[in-house]
Specification:
The structure holds two protein chains of two kinds. Chain A is an all-alpha fold. In chain A, 63% of the residues lie in helices and 0% in strands. Chain B has a domain at 294-464: Cytochrome c oxidase-like, subunit I domain (Cytochrome C Oxidase, Chain A). The chains are: A mainly alpha, B mainly alpha. Chains A and B meet through helix 1 and helix 2 of A and helix 6, helix 7, helix 8 and helix 9 of B.
Amino acid sequence: MGPPLGGAIVTIAAVLVTIGVAVAAARMIIAPGEANPAHPKYRVLRRDR
Amino acid sequence: MGAAGVHQGGEEDRDLARLLAGYIGCATFWLLLSTAVGVIISFKFAYPDLMTSPYLSFGRLRPIHTNDTFYAWASMALVGMAFYVGVKTCGTRLYSIKLGWASLALFNLAALLGTIALDLGFNNGDQEYREWLWWIEAIFMAALVLAAYNLIVTAARRADDDLYLSNWYTIGGMVFTIILASVAIVPWYQRGLGQVGVQAFFMHNAVGMWFTPLTLGLWYYVLPKLLNRPIYSYALGVLAFWTNLVFYPIIGAHHFIFSPLPWWLQTLAIVFSVAMLVPVWAGSANFLLTMRGRWEQVRRSYALPFVFVGVLGYLLGSTQGTFEAFRSLQQVWHLTNFTVGHSHLTMYGFVTFGIWGGIYALLPRATGRAPSLILTGLHFWLATVGVVIYVMALSVGGTIQGLVWISGQPFINSVTAIAPDWLWRAIGGSLMFLSHVVFAWNVWSMITGRAQESRAAQAAEAAS
């Protein structure tokens, strides 16, 4: 076993970051937006050169 | 169609098609070789007295199977397709076709020398996935540096301001892997506990920061093209890229749970293994939501069924990896054959199926020649059934193996208990190898086969 405080700190910090990006990912899945035809994701559909 | 098996477009298109065909052809050769070796060693578990020559011993053949699968088959195929996708998404030509061929020559040289050296008994010790001698790894790294430079300069000359998402993944993966390969061969940390740390860093990142980003980058191009529909969420793809980059590099230490590595490092590896669920689930959701409502199109496509299985392999294999990291489950599965089943679910069910999807999507488009639909279906089902048998056998057998060890029974009891599963693994592996023979014929057809205008036109239409 290592020092419990160090383990707790890295664990809590990592959990907070994970929750943050998980919430961001959920929002992007629910409402992706990106409706502008000039968005890069539409340009890849053009015929290749 | 041209006599050399390439589409009659501009000279640049023909050069790019030849380069792609070169990479895929060489990769396919190494797939056949490395998996033939894999089948032999799988039967050695069921029949230990099979092929007892030192040159055919398990200790020499196993690293040939893994290294050639990694650094010859998957690496060459993914780099070749990264060039093609980079050129198409950047709306420019490849910076240097000659440099592309030079990279391919170096990749092949490293694989050839690595294979010969391993079979003669010269290796880097029991450092999993980096058994090649350091100077052979340096040749591989030189190939990688040339390929990355070629792709980065190509991207710098792109027609649009934005760099399409695929290139984030492919260039990011190449740059990170150059760092990874450097760390793998620097002499300062090759002994003691430092070596364990380096090994933890290397072995998992070889999968997660090399094959994963290149395969995902390929899909971000192939899926929209095949479905004629944009990726569901571009921003989600960017989020998955950055979270993969931040979370992944540390998690290799979960292979060394209960080892002398610092306890906090092991804990951090477990925590970030859980965090990896974010990019994995987000990425998988992004691909599946892009396919939603188009299942008939998926079913009828040459390439999309492979991509679909690849997405499932990515989702299941990576989620399984998270659970494997927990100390409670490591007590059962550590050092068992369960891990071998997991590695095949990811490197085969995810990466190899993903590569096949890319090849069936891009190669007909580049050369103007499509494979037989029946043979492509045969390839798909042999590989799918084979890998399901393989992974199921080792998942069940590995769990039984671990439980027997925990119960304190004599070691031979675990061998007896898993023996039937080893035979099933060899049967599944044989089906997988048969699928590779069919695939090799399909690649041959797509590169040098007779021109079949209608099918080629359909394939090009589907991919445009």
